[in-house]
Write a sequence for this structure.
């Protein structure tokens, strides 16, 4: 089991890298140059804020240790407040309550909150964002995680397969992004002014780093059934989830590019970066449930479908700026629901789906888990978003938004590329 | 007397134009990156299904101040070196210059070239 623990430490650092800097780069490149710093800061701030919230009451509320298998909607947030009742002396037969597992789970909460930020780019006060993520992880992330992974109510009624977070992470963040895009409202000039991505090289780097980090995310999500005999399970499960994650992502990138080529005539770099993320999202819940052919199918379907779905916001007129809905909600739905078809007992999940003679049962529980997440987080996110709107308010003033949120919220500009603008600035700090 | 030759050309033709002018013995020029449009319309770009029309095309502007008698030769050299034969090759025009001063020495007009 030493190898397992060593791997989990590495996997945890990998998932941390997915938020800072991978997601920050992926999102930052897609914004306009006047708001790239704010976009990146939303991810960086999520790291600090959600990470601390997780240690203070998140671990306890998600009930991965106390309250595990309690069959309830949430676990007691105070029982292990600040990890006080958590003994760091791990015993040889515990894999579920060590500090390694706490750190690993912490990075999941962090990135889920950070994912939402793409839906409300360029226009939200930093104070509103910080307030939102503290309340949102408390009311939406930890309860859903408890229900799906912590032996909560949902898992005891309909035990859906979600290896690394199709419901808990991606559908959760996706539906929250949709609600926020609707409540916060459109950017000034949406569908009128050009809002081209300002630096797709950042986005390409971010997508590549996300892909790498995702091995920590998916492969690290192994749960060892018997610590005394975990070696064989570790080797076979990690190899399978690693391969599935890889081939699904490859297929999704090609799927996205093919759809673009058919509809718009050209395969784009943004399409490749987006296809990578769509595939990673879709295979997240399914990487331990399917074989490689299933993974390729799920990836290709997700890539193709998400490429079409990102156009929906223009039809319906909601400004989900960086397509949290089109990529994470749709990709999460594809991966979570298709488990019901492609699941096979030869994979670690051990369940046969419709295509492998398991009948409709798997599809049924997958759909019910999706509905649970959509309703739970959809309703509660609406409540939180409206409460913020009518108290501290979400938006920076329109003129500040037009001038650029980077200067308004942070007093900085990301780029100083022209010699003339550099020499037009002068230093006022004494002794600097 | 002196004249200002201004040329707006395709960016990738700058090196050819520059070396043609060096062969002619031109001693200095000014280059700036500009945007504009003529008969060559812009193009469209698509990002995640959102289509943008980019109607200003990047060009390079070359400015050379020469003595009257050299102006035609310089224009010819730029036109020859800058031509691809396709739409969007740009324009060259000549304007009279009232006076020229070399900043370092204070020399004027023909002596300042």
């Amino acid at each position: 089991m030493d190898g397992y623990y060593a791997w989990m430490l590495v996997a945890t650092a990998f998932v941390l890298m997915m938020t800072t800097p991978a997601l920050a780069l992926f999102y930052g490149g897609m914004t306009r140059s006047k708001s790239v710093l704010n976009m990146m800061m939303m991810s960086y701030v999520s790291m600090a804020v959600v990470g601390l919230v997780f240690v203070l009451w998140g671990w306890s509320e998600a009930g991965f240790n106390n309250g595990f298998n309690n069959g309830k909607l949430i676990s007691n947030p105070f029982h292990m407040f600040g990890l006080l009742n958590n003994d760091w002396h791990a015993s040889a037969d515990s894999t579920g309550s060590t500090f390694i597992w706490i750190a690993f789970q912490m990075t999941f909460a962090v990135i889920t909150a950070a994912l939402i930020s793409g839906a409300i780019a360029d226009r939200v006060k930093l104070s509103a964002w910080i307030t939102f993520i503290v309340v949102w992880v408390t009311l939406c992330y930890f309860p859903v995680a408890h229900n799906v992974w912590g032996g909560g109510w949902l898992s005891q009624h309909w035990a859906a397969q979600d290896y690394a977070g199709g419901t808990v992470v991606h559908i959760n963040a996706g539906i929250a992004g949709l609600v926020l895009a609707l409540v916060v409202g459109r950017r000034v000039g949406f569908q009128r002014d050009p809002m081209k991505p300002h630096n797709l090289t950042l986005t390409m780097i971010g997508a590549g780093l996300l892909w790498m980090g995702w091995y920590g995310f998916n492969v690290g999500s192994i749960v060892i059934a018997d610590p005394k005999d975990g070696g064989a399970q570790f080797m076979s499960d990690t190899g399978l989830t690693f391969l599935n994650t890889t081939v699904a992502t490859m297929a999704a990138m090609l799927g996205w590019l093919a759809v673009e080529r058919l509809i718009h005539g050209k395969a784009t770099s943004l399409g490749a970066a987006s296809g990578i993320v769509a595939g990673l999202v879709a295979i997240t819940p399914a990487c331990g449930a399917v074989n490689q052919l299933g993974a390729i199918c799920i990836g290709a379907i997700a890539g193709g479908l998400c490429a079409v779905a990102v156009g929906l916001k223009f039809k319906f007129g909601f400004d989900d700026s960086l397509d949290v809905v089109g990529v994470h909600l749709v990709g999460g739905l594809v991966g979570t629901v298709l488990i019901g078809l492609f699941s096979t007992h030869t994979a670690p999940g051990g369940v046969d789906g419709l295509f492998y003679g398991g009948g409709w049962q798997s599809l049924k529980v997958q759909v019910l888990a999706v509905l649970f997440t959509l309703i739970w987080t959809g309703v509660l996110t609406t409540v939180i978003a409206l409460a913020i709107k009518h108290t501290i308010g979400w938006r920076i003033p329109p003129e500040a938004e037009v001038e650029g949120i980077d200067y308004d919220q942070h007093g900085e500009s990301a780029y100083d590329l022209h010699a003339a603008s550099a020499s037009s600035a002068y230093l006022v700090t004494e002794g600097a | 007397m002196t004249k200002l030759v201004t040329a707006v050309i395709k960016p990738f033709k700058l090196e050819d134009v520059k070396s043609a002018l060096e062969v002619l013995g031109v001693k200095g020029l000014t280059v700036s990156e500009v945007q504009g449009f003529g008969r060559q319309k812009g193009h469209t770009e698509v990002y995640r299904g959102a289509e943008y029309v980019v109607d200003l095309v990047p060009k390079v502007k070359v400015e050379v101040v020469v003595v009257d008698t050299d102006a035609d030769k310089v224009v010819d050299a730029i036109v020859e070196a800058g031509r691809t034969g396709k739409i969007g090759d740009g324009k060259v025009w000549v304007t009279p210059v009232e006076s020229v001063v070399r900043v370092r020495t204070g020399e004027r007009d023909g002596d300042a070239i």
Q: What stands out?
A: The first helix of chain A runs from residue 2 to 30. Chain A has a mean pLDDT of 94. The domain at 2-221+237-413 of chain A is CATH 1.10.3430.10 (Ammonium transporter fold). Chain A has one domain: 2-221+237-413.
